[in-house]
Design a protein that fits this description.
Elements (H helix, E strand, L loop, with lengths): L1 E4 L5 H14 L3 E4 L1 H5 L3 E6 L5 E6 L5 E3 L5 E4 L14 H18 L1
Length: 107
């Protein structure tokens, strides 16, 4: 499976996903950043040898398991943290930094 992380309005990423499906026949999952931030479950483990494995369960039930991912096209340039706008500014900055660290490690 290929994972394409992009905004639903990212025409270049949508084109790349279509081409990847058409030319390789691969399963291609399109995932918007909001879907990652609202995931039902986000498991990320790193063992003592530095090997990582992860599992993300999106709200619609799709599961993204690291063992099943052949490649990633990452078109995200930032996280849409609009849901954090009501938080205290110091807490909001901390939460945004934690999400960024998690997603960078996950990728």
């Amino acid at each position: 499976m290929w994972l394409v992380l992009c905004s639903p309005a990212d025409r270049a990423a949508l084109w790349a996903a279509r081409q990847l499906r058409a030319t390789s026949g691969a399963v291609v999952e399109l995932v918007a950043p909001e879907e990652l931030l609202c995931a039902r479950a986000f498991e990320h483990r790193v063992d003592c040898h530095g090997r990582a494995e992860s599992r993300v369960v999106l709200q619609d039930g799709r599961e993204l398991c690291s063992a099943a991912i052949d490649g990633v096209i990452n078109r995200l340039d930032r996280l849409p943290c609009a849901s954090l706008q009501a938080a205290d500014p110091a807490d909001r900055v901390y939460a945004e930094q934690e999400w960024t660290a998690l997603l960078l490690s996950w990728l």
